Fold these 3 entries.
Entry 1:
Amino acid sequence: MSELALYLPGILMAYAAFFLAISSPGPNVLAVIGTSMAVGRPSGMALALGVATGSFTWAMLTALGLSAVLATYASALLAIKIVGGLYLLWLAYKAFRAAVAHQDVDAKALAGGGRTLWGYARRGYIIQMTNPKAALAWIAIISLGLAPGAPLWVGAVIVLGTFALSIVVHLLYAVAFSTPLMVAAYGRARRVIQATLGTFFAVAGLRLLTDRS
């Protein structure tokens, strides 16, 4: 129980960072929303599951990669934290900039015509896996939760927990945003949401940059 208490704050911090990151609609989420609205809820849900599976793949690869690097080069932790901290500060800047912008959510269906449900799931996976920012995002998230000398189960808990969150949140987007009413509601609350996200990312980024443990 004492070991769980030792690593739980970092695990929860990683969960919070991931949850807030996908609470701010980026290209992947906007594709899910747009597909649900234009094609239908089942297609949006299939795309959402594909995106969530891609997110799980990135999380697993990052956790295994960082664990291997830290096991061989303990001094690499500082460099990893700097990279993750700077990326979180970049996300904070983007969130604050989005908060003062005038445009609302621009959700569009995927180009290329209709697909089968499997086709939408596959497309969602490809979109997530070919996102060049995903690696940096997962370095930041895993760095928040993976303390020096942490056992393997900590990384596993972070990966599986974020996978569950990804499935739930992306499916909620597909279901809730299948009507223009929800998109309009989000547009009204967008500034507050983005400002809140920016504050969290700034705090988390500074934490990584100043943590020397």
Entry 2:
Amino acid sequence: MQPTRVLIVDDHALFAEALAARLSREPDLVILPVAADGRRALALTTTERPHVVVLDMTLGAENGLDVLDRLRERHPDVRVVVLTAMSEIDAIVQAIRRGAVGWLSKTERADLVVQVIRSAARRGGWIPPDVLGEVLRRLYAGGPEPSGGARVLGELTPREREVLQCMVDGLNRVEIAERLGLSANTVRTHTQNLLAKLDMHSALEAITLAMRAGMRPATRPPHD
């Protein structure tokens, strides 16, 4: 499997160096030189072609959202995970709307950061579970239904729609595989295909589009 190239963008040198040292211990991750500002981040993204950018929201006088906008505009295939000391839900919602696929606090354990980077590289994402519901509510309520949302969903195969419905229901990949009688790898393939068809960059974006187009979480049967 191809190693995941990771670019850390953070102006806190000690934190960035410690994070880089920790991530470099993972055999499947290649850690690129650290960028301390937006200009350096864009330059390294152009020359080093990272798969995942780990981005702080405060970069000296720069706003991390502005850097996110420039990264997404010039390098739309790059997956951006926010790693920051900020915790405001409005900031999380803005970052997701502008193309971030994950949000982590700097107080999270390193193992979770590694897990989210790997997930982002596989077209997954991460929002803290304690704020996920509120973030989804604001994303859903924050704008008009995307033009042609229902039509776009109509391009999915029946199985892809089943997988998307499971995602709307809040199931993870293992739970989707169990519900549909599929392997986890097959679920991953269907998820990648439906994200590509919807031109989405994360499961969260796909769920938001699906809900705006009329899909709703199914009522789960009570546990025995």
Entry 3:
Amino acid sequence: MSTETSPTNAAESSRWRRKAILAASAAVAMVALVGCKADVISYDLPAESARYTFQTETDGVTTAWEYTSDRPTEPGTPTSQPCIADVVLKETGPCRPEPLIFLRYDLGLGLDNTAEADRFHPITVTGYYQDRLGTPPAVTELRAEASFDGGKVWRPVSTEAAGKNTFTARIKHPKRDQASGGVALRITATDRAGNTVEQTIPQAYRLR
């Protein structure tokens, strides 16, 4: 399921409208996690700069983006990687991907996809963009929260920068019987342009 909303002023009629293309944001973001196949989503946006929200849910993993988008003045994709609008919809004119932040995880798990209980456990989260976005802004902030009771209570997790667009979070695991349903994660990232993403994984891993 996916929804895309725009602010009121962006919904007014415009003399020039543009076609926005998203390669199924949730599917692209979570393909490594759940093996989804990406679909092509197309919708019209006004030419004026406006703030948008795009939300998806894939196998219980929810992702919500807030981003600013406006009419491109020049192509934002290399000739070796044509815009999906040109290939699929035969659109003409400048084209570029939307500035959505995607998240890549290194959870540091064992071969059985579990982590040790009753101790601090580091995970690494990296923000990235579609390759065809020419000069993406830097991811400047990442907040992490963990839940051990199925999302009823969320606990803040300390994070620190660990390289370009990369952050390390140290999660204090409870004893195994205090997290029988596993560990849920909620990650929020913000880039220099003010674009954000919030992703919630109901069961990222279990404890041993």
